[in-house]
Amino acid sequence: xxQLVESGGGLVQTGASLRLSCAASGIFDGDNRGWxxxxxxxxxxFGAAVSWAVGVTAYPDVVKDRFTIARNNAKTLLNLxxxxxxxEETAVYSCVADSESELRGQYxxxxxxxxxxxSS
Length: 120
Description:
By secondary structure, the chain is an all-beta fold. The chain is built from no helices and 12 strands. Strands 4, 5, 6, 9, 10 and 11 form a 6-stranded antiparallel β-sheet that branches. The N and C termini lie far apart (40 Å).
């Protein structure tokens, strides 16, 4: 059974940086893994993704140069480093994984999500 558990959320100030982490079990090194986010009252949107085996990454243009997705050296955690956070990026951030998805595609497996409020 696939399990994804996020950590690292919490209140931050505008312009701050924050790292989110995701620990996964029950999935394989060939999977794609990533992050989606959903702001209050808005649709869920793609945040970043990485191919676990080879490290190819993908980002939407709105977060490029401010978000970095990476595996830790032991390949046990998926990290999302976010810099220069904006109040409009207040959202629930969810970790995702799937062996059959495109990096920017649909994912079958989702974590519970972690809230990240950004104060103005």
